[in-house]
Design goal:
With 309 residues, the chain is α/β, with parallel strands linked by helices. It has helices spanning 14-23, 42-50, 61-69, 102-108, 117-131, 154-161, 182-190, 226-236, 248-251, 291-306; strands at residues 5-9, 30-32, 54-57, 77-80, 92-93, 111-113, 142-148, 171-173, 197-203, 209-216, 243-245, 268-275, 280-287. A hairpin with a 4-residue loop joins strand 12 and strand 13 (280-287). Helix 5 (117-131) packs parallel to helix 7. The longest helix is centred in the last third of the chain and has 16 residues, at 291-306. The radius of gyration is 20 Å and the shape is globular. It catalyses: N-acetyl-L-glutamate 5-semialdehyde + phosphate + NADP(+) = N-acetyl-L-glutamyl 5-phosphate + NADPH + H(+). Belongs to the NAGSA dehydrogenase family. Type 2 subfamily.
Length: 309
């Protein structure tokens, strides 16, 4: 029996290149890519996607929708790394650790939408707490995150590594209209009744994310504190291979979080910081925006789907 054919569409962007790197030495699959002259040929792209077993789309949203629309072969399965389908019915959300049974749902799905890098951290922190009833559904959630400049794609890499790199800002907050495209994704998959306030930023480092969510204990369910929240997260992710929760005893000694600490991995580390005197809690996530936030998650989902191919 021949190996499954995996077509990577849009393989020259930051996510596509990283997926190539992660699959480079795999002998259990056949990688299908298009020559440079064919990448914008709609006919050749349609032929390729209909000839594969699993397609990984690393494309802008409109192009991802076009690629999915070109599929006529019912056996083709899709992992979409764009944001085109993350809140759409009929698509399975590709965060395997999100809820019990999610990995199984991904394994058997024909259409999987890869989570965004920021939502991976926000949903990873909030979904277990919302489902446990520890944070009210209408809590006024705010999310702040700092990503490496590769989160902007080629434009960010060129700005910081190209000819004009000396003029690149060291830090910039963006999304000030408070309408970032990841916000509906965070609300839906974290289980929030209200739209969160999401404020992202870029730093002058290539990749990595620190994402934080502040909480006021007085607004949480009665009796809930930092230890309660930590215990819920620790139970939820117990045994997870790619998501860990820092022990409370360790977090008490942590003075700073390095967004680059997990670069090159498909891991995410969650932590809970609690100021008991003032009843403030800070939830935090560290991950690689190109790893667990993109290519790493795509390959993780691919492996789950291949087990059912």
């Amino acid at each position: 029996m021949s190996s499954p054919v995996v077509f990577i569409d849009g393989d020259q962007g930051t996510t596509g290149l990283q997926i190539h790197d992660r699959l480079r030495n795999r002998t259990d699959i056949q990688r299908l890519t298009l020559a440079a002259a064919e990448r914008k040929d709609a006919r050749r792209r349609a032929e390729a996607i209909n000839a594969c077993d699993i397609a990984i789309l690393c494309l802008p949203d409109a192009a991802a929708r076009e690629a999915v629309g070109s599929i006529v072969n019912p056996a083709v399965r899709v992992i979409d790394a764009s944001s085109a389908h993350r809140t759409q019915p009929g698509w399975t959300y590709g965060f395997a650790e999100m809820t019990p049974g999610q990995a199984e749902r991904i394994a058997s799905a024909s259409r999987v939408t890869n989570p965004g890098c920021y939502p991976t951290g926000a949903v990873g922190l909030l979904r277990p707490l919302m489902e446990a009833g520890l944070v009210p559904g209408d809590y006024p959630i705010s999310v702040h995150a700092v990503s490496g400049y590769s989160g902007r794609g080629r434009a960010g890499v060129e700005a910081h590594e190209g000819a004009e790199a000396a003029q690149a800002p060291a830090y910039q907050v963006y999304g000030l209209e408070l309408a970032h495209k990841h916000t509906p994704e965070i609300q839906q998959h974290a289980g929030l009744a209200q739209r969160p306030a999401f404020v992202p930023a870029y730093g002058a480092f290539r990749q990595g994310i620190v994402l934080t969510v502040p909480l006021a204990v007085r607004l949480l369910a009665p009796g809930v504190n930092g230890a309660t929240l930590h215990d819920c997260l620790a139970r939820h992710y117990a045994g997870a291979t790619h998501v860990s929760v820092m022990a409370l005893s360790e977090s008490r000694d942590v003075k700073q979080l390095d967004p680059q600490a997990l670069n090159g991995t498909n891991d995410m580390r969650l932590s809970v910081f609690h100021d008991a005197d003032h009843e403030h809690v800070l939830l935090a996530a560290v991950l690689d925006n190109l790893g667990k936030g993109a290519s790493g998650a795509a390959v993780q989902n691919l492996d789950l789907m291949l087990a059912r191919q």
